[in-house]
Amino acid sequence: MEITVGISGASGVQYGIRLLEVLAKKEIKTHLVLTEAAKQIIEIETDYSPGEVEELATWCHTQRDFSAPIASGSHVTGGMVIAPCSMKTLGAVAGGISDTLLTRAADVCLKEERKLILMTRETPLNLIHLENMLRAKRAGASILPACPGFYSRPKTIEDLVDIMTGRVLDLLGIENDIYSRWE
């Protein structure tokens, strides 16, 4: 199985990084697309460099590499996750704008009816954000706002990140036990 992971320029790059770590431990191959803004946010919010994040993936692709396998529907993957998904990226996906590899790969998932999970990261939401979420959902995407639950009594930021990462894995159909489930 191969999973495409996109990290866009919203706060919360830790979600995408943790997803890459877990998928690597499960020996699931990953295609990674980092936006330029994501690279900046990685340096602001984490102790990782963009290069270190790229090393977590099996393959890395630049935003302009439209010859990458994930730009074609004939290359079969198990789906795609954009974590975090900025409102700019959401708007492009919802509008069918495939001007970068990130949005092209998302469009491929929608047209091929593969899983596309958008972990949106913005608050508060305006009407345009909500309408774009609705458009993406109607097109076949799963909208997973980065809103971890607290019923498991998380004690660290890592616990909160694992809750959301586990939810992504659940949506992908990948077994995991990285977070405490509702009992």
Descriptive terms for the model:
six-stranded parallel β-sheet; 183 residues; alpha/beta; 7 helices
Cα distance spanning the termini:
30 Å
The averaged pLDDT comes out at 97
Radius of gyration: 15 Å
Proportion of residues in extended strands = 15-25%
Helix content: 40-55%
Number of helices: 7
Low-confidence stretches: none
Structure description:
By secondary structure, the chain is of the alpha/beta class. Helix content is 42%, strand content 15%. Strands 3-2-1-4-5-6 form a six-stranded parallel sheet, sandwiched between helices.
Short summary:
With 183 residues, the chain is an alpha/beta fold. 42% of the residues lie in helices and 15% in strands. The longest helix is centred in the last third of the chain and has 16 residues, at 157-172.
List the helices and strands and how they pair.
Blueprint: E1 2-7, H1 13-25, E2 29-34, H2 36-45, H3 50-55, E3 59-61, E4 80-85, H4 87-94, H5 101-111, E5 116-120, H6 127-139, E6 142-143, H7 157-172
Parallel strand pairs: 1-2, 1-4, 2-3, 4-5, 5-6
Helix pairs in contact: 1-7, 4-6
